[in-house]
Amino acid sequence: MNMDELKRQAAAKALEHVQGGMKLGLGTGSTAKHFVDLLGERVKGGLKIIGVPTSEATRIQAEACGVPLTTLDEIDHLDLTVDGADEADPDLNLIKGGGGALLREKIVAAASDRMIVIADDSKWVPKLGRFPLPIEVIPFGLGATRRAIESVFAQCGLTGEMVVRPGKDGHAFVTDGGHWILDAKLGTITDAPRLGTLLGAIPGVVEHGLFIGLANTIVLAGSDGIRVVERP
């Protein structure tokens, strides 16, 4: 079974938690894309739900699949968000943002009663940090912001290369919110909650890809089948 099939298995397992009448957060990325496809099939079969997409790419996909959409301006909370992750640890802390949608993904997850993460089992790690940490920043004053980020890394005993994420055109990648992303290759992050708190206090940092305490369940698909891990 190839990686894409494993991701679809995880998406199908998460879909079992969806009930009629739910308000759903719809994630971004290759695994979440499978969930939206499968959800669209259920909607065509009569399932009544409404979704809030976490990116313009997901919005376009959901509309093409016939999934009715709304915004967090129109509703006050979501019952469930289903999204992928670039990494997940045993405390169900995550690194997200490889697809560039971390800001909207975190807003939607925080507005949800529950978050289910779907992934192939290669994303499961004992400690976060193997995947480069995305940090969404405002382009203005980038040099000052970078220096402040490097200072925070030093406080946390971390070092590593930090680069502006390039776009397909060779210039900086621009998020749906009009910001840039710095990708930091940190290796093992020993205290992800502390790092997240310190990064969030830096002027110029819009958001970071550490999702601490937001995921309730992770569905991991591997060659041995599906494994479901609940928050301790």
Protein architecture, described:
- This is Ribose-5-phosphate isomerase A.
- It comes from Tardiphaga alba.
- The chain is an alpha/beta fold and 232 residues long.
- It folds into two domains: 3-125 and 212-224, Rossmann fold, CATH 3.40.50.1360; 133-208, ACT domain (Alpha-Beta Plaits), CATH 3.30.70.260.
- 30% of the residues lie in helices and 23% in strands.
- The protein has helices spanning 3-15, 30-44, 56-64, 102-110, 142-155, 192-200, and strands at 23-26, 50-53, 80-83, 87-88, 94-95, 115-120, 133-137, 162-164, 180-184, 205-208, 210-211, 217-222, 225-230.
- The longest helix has 15 residues, at 30-44.
- The mean pLDDT is 97.
Structure, briefly:
Helices cover 30% and strands 23% of the residues. It is of the alpha/beta class and 232 residues long.
Question: What's the helix and strand layout?
Answer:
Layout: H1 3-15, E1 23-26, H2 30-44, E2 50-53, H3 56-64, E3 80-83, E4 87-88, E5 94-95, H4 102-110, E6 115-120, E7 133-137, H5 142-155, E8 162-164, E9 180-184, H6 192-200, E10 205-208, E11 210-211, E12 217-222, E13 225-230
Parallel strand pairs: 1-2, 1-3, 3-6, 6-12
Antiparallel strand pairs: 4-5, 5-11, 7-9, 7-10, 8-9, 12-13
